[in-house]
């Protein structure tokens, strides 16, 4: 059982190190989004994907370790969580303390990563809205000559507009 716990602690430490790299990459992504540097954004996204692939492998190893621990404890592996294992190891501080510490550190890091990713998502959504606005603006610029029929001589020659306003002196009639 001791070697399984040691494997779990080692695996969680490895996951933590990769998650730290992922946090750095996500922060770099924020900078790339804000600076509108698409090449850097692409590189950062590729880097993130490689890190996520590494994390997936480490998580699979952790799941297998947890399955083995559940087997030794005679518990269902689907229901056994790291918090449960920490609780079972209270009488063994050499395993309890490091496992508790890395679990807590991973939780804090996951929250920071979640916050950075939520911020990046908001930045991307705002950027997409701005792009859509610019596209609509450019499309409407083509239509502007059709709808904006104002000219300097517009009110001097009413006949040019279908005799609308013919005989009007150019003042508004306040009486109806």
Give a short overview.
This protein has 176 residues and is mainly alpha-helical. It is built from 4 helices and no strands.
Please, how many helices? 4
Write down the CATH topology.
Methane Monooxygenase Hydroxylase, Chain G, domain 1
| Distance between the ends | 97 Å
**SS-based structural class?**
mainly alpha
* Gross morphology: elongated
User: What is the CATH homology-level superfamily?
Assistant: FlgN-like
Strand content: under 5%
Which residues form runs of ≥5 with pLDDT under 50?
none
- Give the class-level CATH name: Mainly Alpha
Let me know the average pLDDT: 85
Name the helix and strand elements from N-terminus to C-terminus, one letter apiece: HHHH
Could you explain the architecture of this structure?
It is a single chain. This protein is mainly alpha-helical. It has a single domain (2-144), classed as FlgN-like (Methane Monooxygenase Hydroxylase, Chain G, domain 1, Up-down Bundle). Helix content is 74%, strand content 0%. It has 4 helices and no strands. The longest helix is centred in the last third of the chain and has 55 residues, at 93-147. The mean pLDDT is 85.
Task: Provide tags for this entry.
mainly alpha, single chain, Methane Monooxygenase Hydroxylase, Chain G, domain 1
How are the elements arranged and paired?
Elements: H1 2-34, H2 38-73, H3 82-88, H4 93-147
Helix pairs in contact: 1-2, 1-4, 3-4
